[in-house]
């Protein structure tokens, strides 16, 4: 019985290997200019890693964004008579882009650090991908998971702060630009960091203050001049401001200036990540 | 050669083994035996008084060293985040209101934020300690030593309490740089700080005992602890809330911690401070009993 099965299996194996041999001769596999399949696989892997365990990866940001809205609504309702709609309409876009960017950062940085710890980073380094393809895959993967979270938060917050996007094009441009920016920052941090502490330090002491103090919750133009000057040096401010303009049609910075700055910063980060991947900085011995 | 060596071995084995029993040891000079005996304690089971003070202190020291070792994340990070919250809320809402509870909005906000930081960190300390030990498998180091369930409960909870208080002091000092904080009733502040940190340490222990994966803990933090602390009246006075939300706030145990603690600072309370104090004390006693039962029973800890 088992002998028969074994023989059958052996036969099948030999047949299939014959078929494979006739179809695809054993030679070096060649790629076109771009290894599309490889880029697609790595992007999909990054995207799915960022969103595994969706119930708390997506629900977590949604719940905390709704809590911020609730707290601001309740606090404002005790302070002034009349509606709190203006305030909520102002905060909601900020929360959406903040959640999306945070997810993009977390997605790329966390997967890289985890891969390094588990020693499976070789799977990414050994695959027939050029440094450029890797950079693109990490950027787009992070952008994808960031946008998924942003969409979920947007749907949830729009229930309470109903508004129609004034400029959908700006909305999409700044959402993509912002998540790519954070995805690339996350990739750099992931390449550099060896411990989770370093990842957390960058998040708590750099990204969180930069976004929270740059207009997620309040109008920047009501601040004193020095603070405004400092904030205008912060690229994340332009992401938040531009994205909010896409929702409310009203912003502090000039849309073209904001768009240009986001594009330049993205290009600069892209180049840095590309050089790191090409040199194998902190990745290859 | 080898076999003959093995044969001769039993006859030459009169040399003392690594752990000789008192009966098997060769006779020694009397004076040496007297000197050694009390130290070895006659190799019987070690006895403790009612409380194993060394063990309790060691467990507590381990819990404290655990978070001090990563102080940037466990003390500095909550301090910075809390200061950020202060900045955001004051900048976003401060200009819309003159006074809340007879104080400027910043003065009103500060004590609640300090309390929020303390409670969240007390919870994080005990829950992560137990959960990480369970995931890594070194929970046996807590279960095997000669510690009674009472000592285990006290040791771990005191670690969380210490982290909460240290974070509270750090955050308070940080805020003091921006707004002069004055404590009207220092003893009340101490009472509420200790009671609240202890309560959240114990809840964190229950969560740590219950959870199996880090996802479970993230769910508890995201969907239970954070909402309860956000909707508890840290950011607004509950006196002028709509009735529904007022009811929600007053049903929230965090409200009493924050309200009592704030009363100690600005001498103004939304609810009854005495009710809060009694409530916290009762809740702590119940939770100590519950955690003690979990340790004694080994619920989700022992096979």
Explain this structure.
The complex is a heterodimer of chains A (285) and B (303). Helix content of chain A is 79%, strand content 0%. With 285 residues, chain A is mainly alpha-helical. In chain A, helix 2 (36-51) packs across helix 5, helix 4 crosses helix 7 (131-160) and helix 11 (235-248) crosses helix 12. The longest helix of chain A is centred in the middle third of the chain and has 34 residues, at 85-118. Chain A is elongated and about 75 Å long. In chain B, helix 7 packs across helix 8 (186-210) and helix 11 (253-266) packs across helix 12. The longest helix of chain B has 32 residues, at 105-136. Chain A binds chain B through residues 53, 55-56, 59-60, 63-64, 67, 70-72, 74-80, 87, 197, 200-201, 204-205, 208-209, 212-213, 216-218, 222-223, and chain B through 70, 72-73, 77, 80-81, 84, 87-89, 91-93, 95-97, 100, 215, 218-219, 222-223, 226-227, 230-231, 235-237, 239-242, 245.
């Amino acid at each position: 019985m088992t002998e028969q099965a074994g023989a059958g299996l052996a036969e099948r194996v030999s047949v299939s290997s014959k078929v494979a041999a006739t179809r695809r001769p054993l030679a070096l596999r060649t790629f076109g200019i771009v290894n599309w399949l490889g880029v697609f696989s790595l992007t999909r892997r990054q995207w799915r890693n960022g969103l595994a365990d969706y119930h708390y990866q997506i629900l977590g940001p949604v719940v905390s964004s709704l809590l911020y809205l609730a707290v601001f609504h309740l606090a404002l309702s005790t302070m002034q008579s009349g509606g709190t709609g203006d305030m909520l309409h102002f905060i909601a876009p900020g929360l959406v882009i903040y959640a999306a960017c945070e997810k993009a950062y977390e997605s790329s940085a966390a997967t890289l650090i985890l891969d390094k710890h588990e020693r499976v980073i070789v799977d990414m380094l050994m695959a027939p991908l050029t440094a450029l393809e890797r950079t693109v895959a990490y950027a787009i993967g992070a952008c994808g998971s960031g946008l998924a979270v942003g969409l979920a938060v947007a749907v949830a917050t729009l229930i309470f702060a109903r508004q129609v996007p004034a400029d959908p094009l700006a909305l999409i441009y700044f959402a993509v630009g912002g998540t790519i920016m954070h995805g690339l920052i996350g990739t750099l941090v992931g390449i550099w960091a060896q411990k989770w502490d370093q990842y957390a330090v960058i998040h708590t002491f750099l990204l969180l203050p930069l976004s929270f103090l740059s207009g997620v919750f309040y109008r920047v133009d009501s601040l004193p001049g020095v603070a405004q000057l400092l904030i205008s040096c912060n690229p994340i401010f332009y992401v938040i401001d531009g994205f909010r303009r896409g929702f409310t049609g009203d912003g502090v910075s000039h849309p073209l200036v904001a768009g240009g700055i986001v594009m330049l910063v993205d290009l600069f980060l892209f180049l840095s990540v590309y050089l790191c991947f090409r040199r194998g900085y902190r990745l290859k011995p | 050669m080898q076999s003959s060596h093995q044969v001769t071995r039993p006859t030459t084995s009169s040399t003392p083994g690594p752990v000789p029993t008192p009966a098997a040891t060769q006779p020694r000079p009397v004076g040496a035996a007297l000197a050694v005996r009390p130290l070895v304690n006659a190799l019987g089971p070690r006895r403790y008084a009612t409380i194993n003070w060394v063990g309790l202190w060691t467990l507590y020291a381990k819990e404290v060293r655990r978070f001090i070792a990563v102080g940037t994340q466990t003390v500095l990070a909550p301090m910075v985040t809390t200061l950020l919250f202060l900045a955001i809320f004051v900048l976003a809402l401060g200009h819309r209101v003159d006074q809340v509870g007879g104080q400027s909005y910043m003065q009103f906000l500060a004590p609640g934020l300090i309390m929020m930081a303390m409670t969240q960190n007390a919870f994080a300390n005990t829950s992560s300690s137990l959960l990480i030990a369970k995931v890594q498998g070194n929970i046996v180091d807590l279960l095997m030593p000669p510690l009674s369930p009472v000592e285990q409960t006290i040791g771990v909870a005191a670690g969380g309490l210490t982290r909460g208080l240290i974070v509270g002091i750090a955050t308070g000092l940080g805020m003091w740089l921006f707004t002069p904080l004055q404590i009207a009733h220092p003893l009340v502040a101490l009472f509420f700080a200790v009671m609240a940190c202890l309560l959240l340490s114990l809840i964190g222990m229950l969560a740590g005992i219950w959870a199996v994966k880090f996802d479970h803990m993230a769910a508890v933090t995201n969907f239970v602890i954070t909402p309860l602390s956000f909707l508890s009246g840290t950011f607004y006075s509950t006196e002028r809330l709509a009735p529904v939300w007022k009811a929600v706030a007053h049903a929230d145990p965090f409200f009493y911690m924050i309200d009592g603690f704030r009363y100690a600072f600005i001498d103004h309370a939304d609810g009854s401070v005495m009710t809060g104090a009694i409530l916290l004390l009762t809740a702590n006693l119940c939770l100590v009993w519950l955690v003690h039962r979990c340790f004694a029973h080994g619920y989700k800890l022992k096979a």
